[in-house]
Amino acid sequence: MKTKKPKKTMQRVARRFAKTSKSVIHLAFRRDKQISVREITKRFAVRQDTLSRMTGFSPRAVAEWASGKKPSAPAKKAFAEMDRLLDALGRLLQPKEVGHWLKEPNPAFDGSTPVQVIERGQIDRIWRMLYYAESGEPG
To answer: What is the C-alpha separation between 129 and 88, in angstroms, rounded?
Structure first.
């Protein structure tokens, strides 16, 4: 009677795919690379107070993380989500213009700024707008 070999775990499959794949894996999905507040603020010209409003963490906590203190697990998750959003916006705009765009009232959001939309928990509206802008579908 033959013994069945154990099935490969998803992690091993993902590692093998990452090694053989030529595709670039986004920073948010890498386990080895941490997203730093300083890097996000510099790359997208977003001020720490704006990042604080977008993530829901206090300005003091964001300043501490920018100075090198390690963020908590929920903070890492929030920064990864914001990094993905800002990266997507950076594909449509110049990355340095993203910070300014976040603070400008936008008619697509009924005159609210994108930061206000995120603060209200309606980040899906921004993702939907990005989808329509990138796909070319009328929206």
So the answer is: 11
- Which of 31-40 are b and which e, b meaning 16 or more Cβ less than 10 Å from the residue's Cβ? eeeebebeeb
* Average pLDDT rounded to a whole number, residues 65-78: 91
Q: Residues near 2 by Cβ (< 8 Å), separated by ≥ 6?
A: none
Measure the CA–CA gap between 108 and 76, rounded to whole angstroms: 29
Both tokens assigned to 40: 């996000």
Q: Give the other-Cβ count within 10 Å of 53's Cβ.
A: 19
pLDDT in tens, 88-138: 999 999 999 999 999 999 998 999 999 999 999 999 999 999 999 888 877
The pLDDT tens digits for 12-28 are 666 665 555 555 555 54
